[in-house]
């Protein structure tokens, strides 16, 4: 696993300008395998993040908490890096840029901030790039295996409609991805695999690159990349006959409508949402609808109290009682 994590870090460095790449290359190995994000902000320190902490990097590749000793990112650094990320062809990535991110080979994702340009149809592009957030895709296989017994009905071998809840960067997408992989391939608790339709609106679950998933999401999985959940649900139901539809970070009224459409068609739902507890969800009108209707039969709560992806609790969906 460590060699794989190092390879992912090294792959990402190829997209960063040489001036910054030099210091990142000579970082201690123990940190290279942990890095989750590399942030470039114009006229600000170069920052890496892992395990919930931010660190600055100095010219010798050492981590420091003193930003006065760190490398400062220039506009030229950002421009050079953006050219590498877009393979010197910004027009080829216009649609992704409108959405605020570009997906790299390997499933890594680069968030983009700058001057947003509007035209009649909405956002046209982002210019004068001021920030780049490079998120390293670290696939963690096996993290769902102790969870599956809670979301599979032993009576009919179907899955319970399941919602994974956590604050940002606590592992909900990673957990959902591994659940998809296991259910698609066929887990030992099952006598079959499920056909799963993934609506990957933010290109994080599958990490599609040139039509190929960069993450292992199983052999019976179909992906709609960059598609909104309502349109994606209709397309999957019409064309792909899924047993399960999986979607990341629900929240809008149209997302709720999509879930209702799936359930009416007899298709189960796997989803994630930002939050800390049931009260958080009830405070949001759209999610309150799902909770009051008892749509989800399992709620999985994550935090980072014992590291990213810690399962804090699993609730049964009718009475909201713990089943762990």
From TrEMBL:
The keyword Nucleotidyltransferase does not apply. Keywords: ATP-binding, Nucleotide-binding. Residues 158-296 form the AAA+ ATPase domain. One of its GO terms (molecular function) is ATP binding. It comes from the Bacteria. SMART domains: AAA (SM00382). Gene3D superfamilies: P-loop containing nucleotide triphosphate hydrolases. Pfam families: Spore_III_AA. NCBIfam families: spore_III_AA (TIGR02858). This is Stage III sporulation protein AA. It comes from Keratinibaculum paraultunense.
């Amino acid at each position: 696993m460590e060699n794989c994590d190092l390879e992912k870090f090294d792959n990402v460095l190829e997209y960063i300008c040489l001036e910054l790449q030099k210091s990142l290359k000579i970082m201690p190995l123990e940190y290279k395998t942990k890095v989750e994000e590399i942030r470039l902000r114009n006229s600000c320190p170069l920052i890496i993040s892992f395990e919930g902490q931010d660190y600055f990097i100095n010219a010798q590749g050492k981590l420091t908490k003193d930003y006065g000793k760190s490398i400062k990112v220039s506009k030229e650094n950002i421009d050079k890096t953006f050219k590498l990320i877009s393979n010197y062809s910004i027009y080829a990535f216009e649609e992704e840029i409108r959405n605020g991110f570009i997906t790299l080979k390997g499933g890594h994702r680069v968030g983009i901030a700058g001057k947003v340009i509007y035209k009649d149809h909405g956002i046209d592009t982002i210019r004068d790039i001021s920030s780049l957030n490079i998120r390293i895709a670290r696939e963690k296989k096996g993290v769902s295996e102790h969870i599956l017994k809670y979301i599979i009905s032993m009576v009919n071998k179907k899955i319970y409609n399941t919602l994974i809840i956590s604050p940002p960067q606590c592992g909900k997408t990673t957990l959902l991805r591994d659940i998809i992989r296991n259910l698609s391939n066929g887990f030992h608790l099952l006598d079959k695999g499920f056909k799963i339709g993934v609506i990957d609106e933010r290109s994080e679950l599958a990490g599609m690159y040139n039509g190929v998933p960069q993450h292992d999401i199983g052999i019976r999985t179909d992906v709609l990349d960059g598609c909104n959940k309502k349109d994606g649900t209709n397309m999957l139901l019409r064309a792909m006959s899924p047993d399960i539809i999986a979607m990341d970070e629900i929240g809008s009224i149209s997302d709720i409508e999509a879930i209702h459409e799936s359930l009416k068609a007899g298709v189960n739902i796997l989803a994630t949402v930002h939050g800390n507890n049931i009260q958080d969800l009830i405070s949001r009108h759209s999610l309150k609808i799902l909770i009051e209707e008892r749509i989800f039969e399992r709620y999985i709560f994550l935090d980072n109290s014992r590291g990213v992806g810690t399962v804090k609790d699993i609730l049964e969906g009718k009475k909201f009682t713990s089943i762990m």
